[in-house]
Amino acid sequence: MNRRDFLKGLVGTSYVVLSGSSVLAPLNALAASGAKASDGWLTTGSHFGAFKMKRKNGVIDQVIPFDRDKYPTDMINGVKGLVYNPSRVRYPMVRLDFLLKGHKSDTSQRGDFRFVRVTWDKALSLFKDSLDEVQTKYGPSGLHAGQTGWRATGQLHSSTSHMQRAVGMHGNFVKKVGDYSTGAGQTILPYILGSTEVYAQGTSWPLILENSKTIILWSNDPYKNLQVGWNAETHESYAYLAELKEKVAKGEIRVISIDPVVTKTQQYLGCEQLYVNPQTDVALMLGIAHEMVAKNLHDTKFIEGYSLGFDRFLPYIQGETDGVEKTPEWAAEITGVSAEIIRDLAKVMTKSRTQMLMGWCIQRQQHGEQPYWMAAVLATMIGQIGLPGGGISYGHHYSSIGVPSSGAAAPGAFPRNLDEDQKPLFNSNDFKGTSSTIPVARWIDAILEPGKTIDSNGSKVTFPDIKMMVFSGNNPWNHHQDRNRMKQAFQKLECVVTIDMNWTATCRFSDIVLPACTTFERNDIDVYGSYANRGVLAMQKMVEPLYESLSDFEIFTRFARIMGKEKEYTRGMTEREWLNKLYTDCKNANAGKFEMPEFDEFWKQGYVHFGEGKPWTRHAAFREDPEINPLGTPSGLIEIFSRKIAQYQYDDCPGHPTWMEKSERSHGGPGSDKFPVWMQSCHPDKRLHSQMCESEQYRETYTVNGREPVYLNPNDAKKRGIKAGDVVRVFNDRGQLLAGAVVSNNFPKGVIRIHEGAWYGPVGEDGSKEGGAEIGALCSYGDPNTLTQDIGTSKLAQACSAYTCLVEFEKYQGKVPRVSSFSGPVEIAL
Amino acid sequence: MSTETANPVNQARSTIYQLLSSLFAKEIDHKTLHELTSTQAQAFWSQLAAEASFKADVDVLVAEFAKLNSDKALLELAADYCGLFLVGTKNSASPYASLYLTDTPVAKGDEPLLFGEQHQQMTQFLKQSQLQVQSEFPEPADHLAVILAYVAHINMHCSNQQQLEFIRDNLANWLATFVAKVAKVDTGNFYIALAQLTLAWVNSDLEWLESED
Amino acid sequence: MRWLLNIWRTLTKPAQYLTLGTVSVSAFLMGVIFWGGFNTALEATNTEAFCISCHSMESMPYKELQETVHWSNHSGVRATCPDCHVPHEWSRKIGRKIEASHDVWGWLLQTVNTPEKFEDKRLEMASREWKRFDRDNSLACKNCHNYDSMKWDSMSKLAQKQMKRAAELDQSCIDCHKGIAHKLPDMGTARAPELIAEVGSGVNGLEVDQSYFTALTKPVYFNEKTDVEAGTLNIATKVKVLELKGNRAKIGIDGWRKKIGAGRVIYYDFGLNILSAQLTKDAALEEGVIQTFEEKEDPMTGLKWQRVEAVIWTDTDYLLSDLQPLWNYARSTYSDSCSVCHTQPDEAHFDANTWPGMFQGMIAFVNMDQDTQALVQKYLQEHSSTFNKSAH
Questions:
Q1: Interface test with A, best of B29, B36, B82, B212 (most A CBs within 10 A)
Q2: Nearest CB to B38: which of A16, A28, A84?
Q3: Cβ neighbours, 10 Å, residue C331
Q4: Cβ–Cβ under 8 Å, residues B156 and B5
Q5: Domains parsed from chain B with CATH numbers
Q6: Taking CA atoms, what residue in A is nearest to B93?
Q7: pTM reported for the whole predicted model
Q8: For the segment B125-156, what is each residue's pLDDT rounded down to a tens digit?
Q9: What CA–CA distances, in Å, run from A334 to A328, A347, A371, A669?
């Protein structure tokens, strides 16, 4: 039969064509006239910066920094990729077995990625049915909707607020206290310095630059970490770092970076580095304190007038309480820092104005409370707390802390909580004798060991029996420790719901996945300049929500509708009315102090600028009059010894700062015979935690062989036959991952670095098959939390201890599997 | 519309492109299944199977239709569809032209962003023909279903030469790679057969268009 | 009565050519001159046309009124200027008229003849009106809006709760409903305007031997006359009125102090860092100000504490008879403001002495004025696990 005949044969039968409509439609008049959302420049922003974006042919074409951002981050190049990357969650989806069997589904299949598309109505009904089932069967202790984190910026669409308000209108649930970044710090410091410190505004940079003679960067990499901010960041801190660099070059300020590795900041400033063995900072500080006492360098007047309990700490330094004198020699043995240098440090820090700037990494380890406490004690002994350019800060690497604040009021947000007269559908508060609030990093413990009672910050916490989790704009499959333990826990859950814009590992381990649009597909409002609160930014919608994604406001308004509570949820206001309200409330709060135009004018303008702030010194008021301006500690003074903590009688957090050996420690510490290498998993240089890892083209600028880089010491690499670019297997008894080798002298012997935020991409244990759901799976991309330990810092904070982690690594010999973390239609041929 | 292009043969070709488009556009539900297995449809399939290069795949499809006799079976097929076309991840064969037309070395795993050049190009084609993608189909314009539907449109409205050029430059140049990807990652039989049938159909159609010149 | 208006206009129009004295006489004594028509004249001055004829209001408050429900509503009842601004009862009305003769001065001096000037004076003018409403317990409102005839069922639960509480106290409407007919003045310079709008500016007619609670952080003084400050009373602090003289009240504050420094800081109770008052050094050392009682050591800090009673003077304003409205305001502020970034911890999650550290460490992103901050902190402390054992 020739083709023409064949085709003619088909003519008769081919009208079977499906009756459904075509994917094409006539060009409508609006689009034809080109009158749809016009192309051009708009203003918006994110954690990565405030920007201007150009819309061209209906898509985001260009992203350039906001005029007032003089030090934009390179990450701006990844922003487009957040929107148009192939990992977008495009439609509401439900895991097939969950759709078929509901709460009795085979949970061991979680993570194997067999989903079905459903309509929004269906997905939201399933979501509500699951909540109904859990509240009916287990009550509020069965539901944990309290895990929240770095939601995308914007005060109106703040994803965690929407989720918690809507789920809260359905019923009560388990909540968390603390966070992964600063869990130990924010718990210990109120006892010691009377504030969380980590999230408090710090002494202004201009005063530091003017007054400090020595700056100690202790485990602190501000040049890396200031790239991102809690609000739309405008990177003003970098101007001060540039000034500092000049002063370092001229010899006007001495900057010492105390850190096992050469940091990005140190390289930028061209300052000194003092190597210290990982996790031994407390020993180093004790050695310095001993030397201060021995040489009478400490400020006894300040100690007496502003602190309590030095007398009960001194015997520990002098070895009277434990028989070990904390001499520089003793410290040298543990820390790898010579006694001579320790003695010199004591002298340097006390002889002139010294500003200590602490990073957050050292409190994310076992006993992470101790280095923060001991650093506060050192600062007290130096006696410069409350002086400009002196004392101690725990936040200058974060969100423009140290940039003088404008003093203006910032816009409020869509409410997270129920309004006062509102009651949830299921209004039970019966947590069945278990705790309604648990320390943030202990939820996996709770799922695995419900009913267990633990110590926590002076009280007891009894783990609730969690059956269902709801996450929104939150990716615990990045920030929690020990993936294989998480998998065990997730198999015990009946239902997991995740709302996100891209297929994070958390989405993949869920049952119901709902697509949220990105920041750039909705109108919102935010502060720019983070802690500087430099102005208010109009976050103008660039494009309509892609695929079937919706804004958080829309998602939960629909959800509330299903509950019959739409009006309660929105208070009868539209998105635009809310924006107007948030702005106008802010305008009213600033009336008489900061001029702000009417909303429409502001929206057209794109921003309102509040102007510069006045320099300010942290703790100056306290120093001036500690009686009238006491600290928020029990005594109102700095507590070198805390009776309150002492009376808890915690073996892992006694009444004064104490050096305690870690469960695993490199450089001769416990466990180092089997796994000799310490892995640090600090905040990434090219992402905000796990945000932007999915941005394909930008990721390719730093990956090695398509994998997350693992930074290796040259000798360590050579010993294992590894060269730059090799695929390396990093492993311990908890898990295994593949990463791409970067060999660098910035990393000392026995230390490797893999940045956290690398998307988890499990493949079968032998690497040969797709088997992501299996316990023990190999992470094909290089998520360091495949290897970290899931233990609390101590009975006090119960915070995460990701930095207490030993590993071994080798050149990977097996067949290299594809990276399964992201979209992957293109085979990676190796 | 010229009488030359609107002849019954072109109509038949257009219908087949339209059918293929619909099958790639969304999951098969009860209604679609009913239509695909009606008496007339059976006649159509057997006519299609008369062509040797289509027979194997048509047979598979017809056999698969027969197995779709429960909600669960339809859901399993929907899950296959979802894994292949709706989630960009390990098992996926995303149906976007841009992903298969990249010049960058695959070893780097570098992928173009969606809604990129090919999307713009297709949007332009559609616009020229006074068409746009349905708002109920919120996908980039370089989605396979859009391209197939557009071919169905030009079958009726453009000269053979124009059709030939469009198919060669915008469909045939990546379809084989896509089909290979589906064959590699599909865990079922249906979409492999559908993809292979599409490729065979497009190839034979190209041959026919060339021969008609 | 048009003739009267016309006379009024002729009298006042060429004001710039008349001496101030002449016009002043003309102002409200006019009614007396036309003795026979006193009541008639008064009525004339009581119409809207009269008000707006010289209040230069066409552009400002009158226009604002026209956009409110008091101008246009379902029932077709319209409130005009005098309905709200002139008392309906005769003696009060006369008082108000005499008071209003000040307005004539203002009009003459062109105090508010531009929108800018009007805005500058708006708060002052509004405050005078609010005070007046407060004084007569919002009588003008209650002529139309009666607590007794309110339809409770058609209100939201929240409105019901608040309205019922207000009804029980026969509260002045304007306590909550400021800005209902005209634009709310820019209160940016006033302290904690939203808080004060919610809880009111204090009880009228304090009584000796009664206890009250501070609605703001208030200065204290050495005696009933001096302006020399002797320290500050913290917000939401309980004080007992011992004596009243003019605008000052002599008050007693019970509490505990730490025996460090000059012992100037008085706390709520033993071992609890809940601030009640801070005195200047001079005040703390002044004979008769602080009476001291027993001492105890705080086991948590090792510091000695001493029970004290302070006696000092303060202004009679911003003293409330009830603490609950302050707590209500604090609770909703805490719930709204502290949940912007994260879930706010339950009040009882921390103890009274841990809250200051947690709260102070988290307020960088929170919009609260000093008074509200102090109130919220105190609210958290007094609702902490120290007092509420049901936590966890």
A1: B82
A2: A16
A3: 16
A4: yes
A5: 3-104+113-212 (1.20.120.1820)
A6: A825
A7: 0.86
A8: 999 999 999 999 999 999 999 999 999 999 99
A9: 10, 21, 15, 9
According to DSSP, residue B86 is labeled I
Question: What region does A549 belong to: left with phi over 0, alpha with psi -120 to 50, or beta?
Answer: beta
- A-C contacts (CB, under 8 Å): 152
Give the model's pLDDT for residue C66.
Answer: 75
pLDDT band at A112 (very low <50, low <70, confident <90, very high): confident
pLDDT, tens digit, for every residue of A274-315?
999 999 999 999 999 999 999 999 999 999 999 999 999 999
Length of chain C: 392
- pLDDT tens digits, residue range C139-151? 788 878 877 777 7
A86 touches chain B (CB under 8 A): yes
Tell me the pLDDT tens digit for each residue of C255-277: 999 998 889 999 999 999 999 99
Chain B residue at shortest CA distance from A504: B89
Q: Over the range B26-37, which residues count as b (16 or more CB within 10 Å of their CB) and which as e? A: bbbeeebbebbe
Report the pLDDT value the prediction gives residue A546, as an integer from 0 to 100: 96
Chains B and C touch, using 3 or more CB pairs below 8 Å: no
Q: Is B208 in contact with A115 (Cβ distance < 8 A)? A: no
Distance from C-alpha of A195 to C-alpha of A573, rounded to nearest angstrom: 37
Residue of B nearest to A98 (CA): B75
Please determine, for residue C181, whether its predicted confidence score (pLDDT) is greater than 60: yes
B52 touches chain A (CB under 8 A): no
Q: Which residues of C touch A204 (CB under 8 A)?
A: none
Interface touch A436/C346, C-beta < 8 Å: yes
pLDDT band at C43 (very low <50, low <70, confident <90, very high): low
B43 touches chain A (CB under 8 A): yes
* Residue indicated by tokens 């002994």: A381
**C354 vs A421: CB contact, 8 Å cut-off?**
no
Closest listed residue to residue A657, CA positions, set A392, A371, A379, A383: A371
Tokens of B175: 């379809």
Looking at the complex, does the CB of residue A31 fall below 8 Å from at least one CB of chain B? yes
Identify which of A57, A40, A159 has the alpha carbon closest to the alpha carbon of residue A519: A159
The DSSP symbol for C71 reads: T
Distance from CA of A521 to the nearest CA of B (A): 14
Q: Does C339 touch chain A (CB under 8 A)?
A: yes
**Confidence band, pLDDT 50/70/90 cuts, at residue C188:** very low
Alpha carbons A718 and A713: distance in angstroms, whole number: 9
Percent of chain C with pLDDT over 70: 66
Please state the φ and ψ torsions of residue C250, each to the nearest 5 degrees: -90, 130
φ, ψ of residue B82 to 5 degrees: the values are -60, -50
Between A579-583, A712-716, C86-90, C181-185, the lowest mean confidence (pLDDT) is in C86-90
Among residues 196-235 of chain C, which lie with CB inside 8 Å of chain A?
Answer: none
Contacts of C298 in chain A (CB under 8 A): 634
What's the gap in Å between the CA of C248 and the closest CA on chain A? 25
**In chain B, whose CA is at the least distance from the CA of A13?**
B44
Q: Is the pLDDT assigned to residue A551 strictly greater than 70? A: yes
Distance from CA of A208 to the nearest CA of C (A): 20
Q: How far apart are CA C304 and CA C295, in angstroms?
A: 7
ipTM for the complex? 0.94
Q: Do A435 and C392 touch (CB under 8 A)?
A: yes
Distance CA A285, CA A290 (A): 9
Which among C352, C315, C325, C350 has a CA at the least distance from the CA of C206?
A: C315
Q: A675: closest CA among A593, A730, A620?
A: A730
* C299, closest residue in chain A (CA to CA): A643
The label of the residue with tokens 């064949």 reads A6
Average pLDDT value for residue range C241-261:
94
B118/B116 Cα distance (integer angstroms) = 6
